[in-house]
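Hello forum,

I keep getting stuck at the same step: I have a sequence, I want structure tokens, and every attempt I make locally crashes halfway through. Rather than fight my setup again tonight, could one of you with a working pipeline run this one for me? It's a single chain of 213 residues.
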Amino acid sequence: MSLTQDLAKAKQEFIANTPLEIQAEMFRQIQEQQESGIAYGRQEGQKAKDFTLKNALGDTVNLFDELSTGPVVLTFYRGGWCPFCNTQLKSYEKILPEIEALGGQLIAVSPQSPDNTLSQQEKEALSFQVLSDTNGLVAAFYNILYDVPDYLQNIMKQVGMDLTEYNAMNSWVLPIPSTFMIDESGIIRSAYVNPDFMQRLDPEDILHELRKL
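Reply #2:
Ran it on my machine without issues. Output:
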């Protein structure tokens, strides 16, 4: 199945297994962001923001250093607790050889703690760089960081998910799932930013954009 089909299946399972009141609050947040009028994300043609973060093993990774070897597919996701994120990353892992054959590399960023990043990378057998943006600063650089509303915090706590513990930070913040294609000169060549966390950029679209570089 394609990623789009896998995500549709995950959405069906979410609807089938999640109490209606929780569903309502989740969809409320998506709708609020969609109707906010805010232009989230850095845009195509803009310069990418450089950053240095640690990977799952504690090694530092600098974006512009990585760009010196070829284009970067930079994707921001919510965390290993999110089934839609895990579906996305596993799908991207499958096309990693094709990304690398086109001279590119994949870097994934989330606000989760390094320990949780390592656990996720091992569990999902991810072989690309998975970085911890533990204060959400890089997501803020890319204009995709948002404060989780109180009503959603309450829902997440009810199901045992405390983001302050999972992300090892004091704030309830998350990135809007986004994927940026950045060329060797540091210019964003395409940008996918979608407040609907149940949708992600399809792997074939990533390969299509890479072939254009």
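The mean pLDDT is 94. If your local run keeps crashing, start a new thread with the error log.
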